[in-house]
Amino acid sequence: MTATSARPGPTRAGGRAERLARPALLAFLLVAAADLIGLLAGAETVHLVAKPLLMPLLALYAALRGGPRLLVAALLFGWGGDVFLLVDDDLAFLVGMGSFAVGHVCYLTLFARGGGRGRAPAALATGAGYAVVLAAFLVLIWPDLPADLRIPLTGYSLLLTAVAWRAGVFGPYAAAGGALFLLSDALIATGIAEWPQAPAPDFWVMLTYIAAQALLAHGVLTGAGRTPPPGPGADTA
């Protein structure tokens, strides 16, 4: 056996990463369960500890699975949004929303590189449907939103709606994730507008959000719209 053959190659290293990915995913699922149970039980401390761990664990899983850098970046910017939104302050809310917005730009850039799908008539019809729903929602909620948040929330909603539409490039799982992300943020907006809420509203916000990010990650990692892996040394962003 030569020194060259004894050195671990890309396949062996990739196999180790795949084996490490499974514990990362399990940790994400356990923390997600703890967070949701904590919210149902009214254990605020559990939520404060668990929520900031969610996206780093999911990003770690995506990285170990060899996911695109833009996916990892989107998840980490989501983590930034999670952390800032834990602070009950208007400025922290806007910074958190900005961090999520950067994450959505990462998603949109990634979707644009997803093999050119999403230009078929069905996808355009889906986009039109999202536009109608968004317009109706904004018309209904606008009078009840704080005046200083109306424009930022509208811009953010447009960006997130684009993500929900374009997510279909990576297949049905990612499309479902985009739709759930839009629903999760709509639930947050109704809370800001002080509309009537379902019991345990934070639970439903986090349930839809966690599912959204997980489905988006799964869709990108396994979706049919994913472009073939580049050659050695190429940028996988």
Could you give the topology of this structure?
Elements lengths: L2 H4 L3 H32 L2 H21 L4 H17 L4 H23 L8 H21 L5 H20 L5 H21 L8 H22 L15
Structural features, described:
- With 237 residues, the protein is mainly α.
- 76% of the residues lie in helices and 0% in strands.
- The chain has nine helices and no strands.
- It has helices at residues 3-6, 10-41, 44-64, 69-85, 90-112, 121-141, 147-166, 172-192, 201-222.
- Helix 3 (44-64) runs antiparallel to helix 4 (69-85) and helix 6 packs antiparallel against helix 7.
- The radius of gyration is 19 Å and the shape is globular.
- The two termini are 36 Å apart.
Give structural attributes.
disordered C terminus, disordered N terminus, mainly alpha, 237 residues
At a glance:
With 237 residues, this protein is mainly α. The chain has helices at residues 3-6, 10-41, 44-64, 69-85, 90-112, 121-141, 147-166, 172-192, 201-222.
The amount of beta strand, in percent, is under 5%
H and E order: HHHHHHHHH
- Averaging pLDDT over every residue, what do you get? 87
- Class inferred from helices and paired strands: mainly alpha
Using only CA atoms, what is the Rg?
Answer: 19 Å
Biggest sheet architecture: none
Number of strands: 0
